[in-house]
Design a protein that fits this description.
alpha+beta, 7 strands, two-stranded antiparallel ribbon, globular, Arc Repressor Mutant, subunit A, 53% helix, 3-stranded antiparallel sheet
């Protein structure tokens, strides 16, 4: 079973591949179809969940994706979606629940359109994947997106090329080459960038000491944190905090 989760307030907690992360309201989460995951909604929280078997999503998207069969359709990601999209999804789900026989063909078609729209951002990346066929490119992209999604959702976790290689079933050299070809940066540089962005968020949203920010952001020491932060932000973490207060 796979599909989408859309928090209506607060957010949802996701546990998958040994990581636990929070998906905030304003995002729509699509789980990895090949790995177990656990979703929990905080007390008084609300979320939309639309889940179905792969064959159902294949049918819903068939007018747009021809002959996908057993190929990957839903890629793991957390998409930031506008309010209009989320309201439309809520109205669509209510309409389907209110339908006595649950066979509102127009609503079902619209659900397929929404999944396509949400994952349109992957189209240019799919074009960069090597392979003579759409089938091969989608299979390669799923493996690489799986690695990128783990990096994006687990900045505090110790992630190395061996971990990502096992996850994608690629050798270190293959993984680095394909990751850079598709996403424009190596897995290591991607991890550094995500950690700095996470550190910026902690500085922006908390009064946490810079040393604590460095540790929670996944950096081994303050020196590596300072170097990475300056490269990606153009200044030190302290300067970044001061600029936010001006």
């Amino acid at each position: 079973m796979t599909g989408l989760w859309c928090p209506l307030n607060s957010g949802i907690w996701v546990e998958a591949l040994g990581s636990r992360f929070f998906v905030k309201r304003g995002s729509v989460y699509t789980p990895d179809p090949d790995y177990a995951h656990e979703i929990s909604v905080p007390m008084r929280g609300m979320s939309i969940a639309v889940l179905a078997k792969h064959s159902v999503w294949a049918q819903l998207t068939s007018p747009y994706y021809e002959n996908l069969g057993s190929l990957p359709i839903v890629f793991p990601a957390s998409h930031i979606m506008p309010v209009g999209f989320r309201l439309a999804l809520l109205q669509l789900v209510r309409r389907m629940l209110d339908c006595a026989d649950a066979t509102d063909s127009l609503a079902i078609e619209q659900l397929g359109q929404m999944m396509i729209k949400m994952q349109q951002c992957f189209s240019p990346l799919l074009q960069r994947c090597p392979g003579p066929s759409l089938a091969r490119r989608r299979q390669i992209f799923l493996r690489l997106q799986r690695a990128r999604h783990l990096i994006q959702t687990s900045p505090s976790r110790s992630i190395d090329i061996t971990t990502l290689g096992k996850l994608t079933n690629y050798s270190a050299n293959q993984l680095i080459r394909l990751f850079r070809l598709i996403f424009g940066e190596t897995p290591y540089l991607s991890l550094l960038r995500v950690r700095v962005e996470y550190a910026q968020r902690l500085i922006r949203e908390t009064e946490m000491d810079i040393s604590e920010v460095s540790r929670i952001s996944g950096f081994e020491n303050r020196t590596s944190f300072s170097r990475a932060f300056k490269i990606h932000s153009g200044g030190t973490a302290s300067e970044f905090r001061i600029s936010l207060r001006q």
